[in-house]
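Help!! Second protein's tokens look totally different from the first
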Amino acid sequence: MNREIAPSSIAPTAANYAHAVLSESSKRWLHTSGIVPIAPDWSVPASIADQAATVWANLMAILADADMAATDVVSVTTYVVAGQPLAPVMAARDTALGGHRVASTLVTVPALARPEWLMEIALVASA
């Protein structure tokens, strides 16, 4: 139902993501808000790697509650505070998605709504 679009007439992606994902005959769509790195106990990890793991754990919980899985994700938009390393953020995405490639945008921003948040992610899933 969801398939990667990768035209041979354009350059490949710059990392492990898809240029586009086509959803055909989808019956259910899930759109999240920007999910932030707040753990269930209301703590916020200090490192960007731990924040990325927390955000993805929160996203996986949302997907499960919607009776969806990582393979239903079609698009991810990640916001990272400028100056933070991007490698742990992309590694957390790749780990959480387990090799499933999605349309992915990563944007650096000067700040987020709270100073302790170093990143947040919004996603779209289709089933």
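Here's the second one for comparison:
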Amino acid sequence: MRRSMKLAAVVLSGSLGMASLAACGAKSTDSSSGSGDGSLKVGLAYDIGGRGDQSFNDSAARGLDKAKSELGVSVTEAEAKPGEAEADKETRLKNLIDGGYKTIVAVGFVYQPAVNKVAKDNPNVKFAIIDSNDKDQPANVTSLLFAEQEGSYLAGVAAANKSKSKHVGFIGGVQSELIKKFEAGYKAGVKFVDPNITVETTYLTTPPDFTGFTSPDKGKEAAQGQLDKGADVIYTAAGSSGNGAIEAVANKSGALAIGVDSDQANQPALAKYKNSILTSMVKNVDTAVFSYIDSVKKGQSPTGVKLFDLKSDGVSLATTGNKIDDIQDKLKAAAESIKSGATTIPTAPAAQ
């Protein structure tokens, strides 16, 4: 999300709605390679930050790229703008439809109101929304959800086992129900290992301010504050704000960071900090995006809720850097307990 992308439309020969796509900040990457006939047109609307955030949006982008390459679909990507109005999201989705894109993936819970409205007005268009499930959403909307609390529980187990100070931290981008799932799982994992470990908690912003997902400076400041209090392992669920937190941790000798959404130790933009990244709680958004597009391509009509949990490899811990190799037996035992149902992870933090 540090990267500032110029929002422009690539001209599609013969496509309808070129001007409207340009107006909503879409860039088309019409498929000319891979299997398939390119007859399926997929539009993907990013959350703020878009492709290049080294985290959540990039994971969605990988799924879209795979669909283009392996399924031969035509795709276009539409960028969001920080601080935009709800009407902007609705316009973005409508413009994709006007451009001929009848399968649309909305990245992030912030799109729920816009998706509900536009999907209701366009019942023949298929929508998927990541990280949100509204009981009142139209039948042509599929929710792609993840068991973030399960992956975060494993991150907590790793943090507790690696902390030398018995003091760890959690930084959430925006204090929302979604990010509270990360917090709840992480704290439960930490306390499972050692109930006496101190866990610092910091949220960068509260709704309707969503800049906590796109402010590396805020992430860096929050992480520094937790380091100053004695935390030596910090887990950040905050989009590109986490890049700043990782930088602060890397500047503290002996401290370790836990990344989120993507394998952040394997991200080029974070390469200089990779030795300070213990692991990342990977949310396989790419798997969800590709799976949804593939089902539509096969003529299926996905609807309702599709849950990607630990058992279905929807969430996992990254092993890049081999820093958790020595505790794999503990992590596997914890994972198996979750998969078998013996351990149930909370989705909301315990009252303090």
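Reply: Different proteins will give different token patterns, so don't panic. Confidence is low (pLDDT under 50) at residues 1-37.
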